[in-house]
Amino acid sequence: MSGSGKRAQARPYTPMKGGISNVWFDRFKISNDCPEHLESIDVMCQVLTDLINDEVKSGIKKNRILIGFIAIPGTEQVPRKITTGGMT
To answer: Torsion over CA of 72, 86, 9 and 69, rounded to 10 degrees?
Structure first.
């Protein structure tokens, strides 16, 4: 698995009062009733899309690629955006 071990980049994380954390996307707060931080989710999805495309270019079939995802309240859009968002 050439893509295994890909980690989130260090970024300011709002729930930690702007402290630096390795997270894939920012959140306004940890809550089910909070809107998602779409700009950071878009960036994350592009990074993951590029990673998938690199794997496909190296010869791995799309149906053999798996992205692990831990469900966190308020992150319902992430898997849907990755699977429908522009992968070529």
So the answer is: 30
